[in-house]
Amino acid sequence: MMPGYFIHIWLFFFAVFVRESKVEEVKKGLYSRVELTGEKLDQHTADSLKSVEWTKRNRSTTCQCFRQTITKSSVSYSQCCGTARFYLNNNTLILENVTERDEGVFTETIVTANGTVKHLNFTLIIQYPPNATGIVVSWTSSTSVTLKCEVSGLFQHLMWKREGVSILEKHRHSFSERNQTLHISNITSSEYGSYSCIASNAYGESEKHTYITGNGTRDETRSDQTVLSSGLTLTCVLGLCLVFYCLYKYHHRHRAENGKTTDGGEAAIDLGIYQEIPDFGEVTPLPCVYTDFIKPRESSQASAAAQHFEESGYSEVGPSCREPVSNEESTACPEAGEE
């Protein structure tokens, strides 16, 4: 048998049973519509089509999105690819509102009646807009400042603005690191204010602000939080004032109601927390002390008692040995020991 005969047999089996494979990379933005379109099916392939199947491989997980068997006229979808839909007339799988979970390698497998198998691979990559996370401000001197816009993700353009007006590169303004860094030399007070950086790509943009005041900066996000905190504090203070005012009015009205007189004209008893204490009149001290009924046992006791009353400012009532009762009568002082 001639060697060329084996070559023809090998080419025949390769044409019939070969597994054709192609790879295509698809980049789409977040929440966008994705159309994965395979090769256009010619009339011969369409007539001899046996089945079409789509699978998705994400890292180490593989699942079946769709399968259609032509001979049995059966179509089946799975939740693996969300709300994906396949259209045989243009050989396209459509995905709506794609997210990170839709990323992966999609493979279309076409099997014909004669056993030919075709594979077409699509690598779906979800693109995100850049995220400006902050602006770092560094004062190199009292009149020179550097602003760096920190961005996560890929960006195509980065623009700087001051008070909403774009900053152009000139003798005192210079850019570096793909416009991520802004250098300002000989800055004056007229250039203080709000600065912002805007990073963008084909899928969106992100903006961050900062405020320059002399040798310091103020983050607008932090300022907004301060304003919010001050507003809450003021609201709490006003609420407490209102509560105290209501308590005052309540006790005032309660006291007024308890202070009213009854129908009989008598004052009602105040049962509130406030009670008035009546004033007592001034007590007048006695002008004198009667001592005539006190019989001292000894003369020394009598003299001591007399001296005590004299020092206290009281007068004795009754006969006294020191004062005559009248011109005609006199009272003698009792002798010691007499009763």
Can you offer a commentary on this structure?
Keywords: Glycoprotein, Membrane, Signal, Transmembrane, Transmembrane helix. InterPro entries: CEA_cell_adhesion, Ig-like_dom, Ig-like_dom_sf, Ig-like_fold, Ig_I-set, Ig_sub, Ig_sub2. Pfam families: I-set (PF07679). This protein has 339 residues and is an alpha+beta fold. Among the domains are: 112 residues, Immunoglobulins (Immunoglobulin-like); 91 residues, Sandwich (Immunoglobulin-like), CATH 2.60.40.10; 30 residues. Helices cover 22% and strands 37% of the residues. The protein has 4 helices and 20 strands. Strands 1-9-8-3-4-5 form a 6-stranded mixed sheet. A 5-stranded antiparallel sheet has the order 13-12-16-17-18. Strand 6 and strand 7 form a beta hairpin. The radius of gyration is 55 Å and the shape is flat. The N terminus and C terminus are likely disordered.
Summarize the helices and strands and which ones pair or pack.
Layout: H1 3-17, E1 19-29, E2 34-37, H2 43-47, E3 49-58, E4 61-69, E5 74-77, E6 85-87, E7 92-95, E8 104-112, E9 117-127, E10 131-139, E11 145-152, E12 157-162, E13 165-166, E14 173-176, E15 181-184, E16 193-201, E17 204-213, E18 216-218, H3 220-258, E19 288-290, H4 299-312, E20 315-317
Parallel strand pairs: 1-9, 19-20
Antiparallel strand pairs: 2-7, 3-4, 3-8, 4-5, 6-7, 8-9, 10-11, 11-15, 12-13, 12-16, 14-15, 16-17, 17-18
InterPro entries: CEA_cell_adhesion, Ig-like_dom, Ig-like_dom_sf, Ig-like_fold, Ig_I-set, Ig_sub, Ig_sub2
Domain Ig-like: 130-213
Keywords: Glycoprotein, Membrane, Signal, Transmembrane, Transmembrane helix
